[in-house]
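Predict the structure of Major facilitator superfamily (MFS) profile domain-containing protein.
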Amino acid sequence: MESRLGRNCRMITATAVIGGMFVGFNIASMSAIIATAQYKCRGPDPWLQGVIMAAMPGGAWLSAILSAWLLDGYGPRQEIQYITGFWISGCMFVTFSVNVPMLIVGRFINGISVGMCSAQLPDYVSGISPPSVRGRLVSMYQWAVPCGMATMFFICLGCSFIEHQAAFRLPWGLQLIPALLLLMCLYVLPENPRWLAQMDRWQEVREVLTLIHGRGDFCAPIVKRETDALIEAARLDKVNADVPWSELIVPNMINRTHIGLFTQIWSQLTGMNVMTYYATYVFAMAGLDDLTYSGAQFIIYAVMSVPALIWQDRMERRPTMLIGASLMCFFMSLNAGLFAIYSRPTTSSDHLDTGAISMVVKGPPARGIIASTYLFVASYASTWGPASWTYPPGLYPLRVRGKAVALSTSAKWFSDFALACFTPVAFATITWKTYVLFAVFCASMFIHCFFLFPETANKSSEEVAAIFEDNGPGSIKYIGTPAWKTRSDRHATLQREINVVDPETNPSPTTRSNTLN
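Done. Here is the predicted structure for Major facilitator superfamily (MFS) profile domain-containing protein.
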């Protein structure tokens, strides 16, 4: 007979994947559509198209800031149900929009749901997952985001052959599917036990832990261990409930806060959002109007995310980010050079309907731009893509982690919002120099990361705190240990974990002797 644990894990996995697809659908919902004749005949200029595109990250930025207050008092499961309600209403606005303001409002509402979902769903999945597969299931959510982007792009590609407004309205309407599937999954899943513990609903805590960890056995040792851990976590949450936001900028914390903020800011300033939102413009400038070439980059994004998610705990964070920054700088510089040397301004004979496609390259240089673009996407997906989410939480002590991560996430969405507005106008006005700007950003992030981003992989909270102490030998005031001197010692970390004895599962010789006596 199939175990209840196996069924639970499959349902939790489905929730993580559907939630990630939910976010990815929205991010890519305009990427292919802006290149279709049915949409372009409405004629938004580069500035207006930037506003339409930026409405989604703008809503996500607002919800990232206000999420702690918007649904205060509701459990994470119920919050996510309300989030799907926002999503459904936003999809209806977008699908049946009769003018640009209505489209912008719909995308803004969808952005609110994306911001809240990206903040709440990974934490919910983590809270209801068995400890042995917790990291894997949360990683499934992260991986499903680029998969959702790829799926939506090819849905838009298929619908582009429809000779009607349905060419773009149908893909927007199909975004309802992951919302409805997520509602169905949440209907059968329990509330997050950590939230129940914060509410002192301990009977429900034990029932949920028995369901998801104990295979129906109320007396299972793992149920007791997880309950004890939640009791301690709830105690710490109450102790740290009154921590003010100002603690993030005190002298011994401000360096950590700035690193977390810039991890998310730099991840956006790499130029990856140019590929995410405006890939069709980039490939049209390289002489390829076939949307299949643009869609291939989303497949590369999804595939190249897998190695980083599997081996992220074995790889050091700092070298990964430095290598990624240098590779992306090189490929952006290569694109800038190819466009600068071989491009020509567009003319009326090119039959292009937007000023954002301001230059055209043909022949071998165009193929070089396409290859460089694909390699750029692969570099981001395997380095800064996952690192931008895994690196910031490890910087902070528990008492300020929630506020600090929320602040860094809001910085990500604000940067995303600004770039979505800026990119079409930049392509229209400064043309190939747009790539130079992103290359400079990538070079700056390499320098910043080298001098100020310490290694945090395989380190406990105490070890990370020691890195930022500025009263030791060789430390720098307000910074701590120089970043380039920090290292990860995974072997020592594994040895410490192996030497920790759990008397209920691996009793020590002394324990066994006492038991026998």
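Residues 3 and 215 are 7 Å apart (CA to CA).
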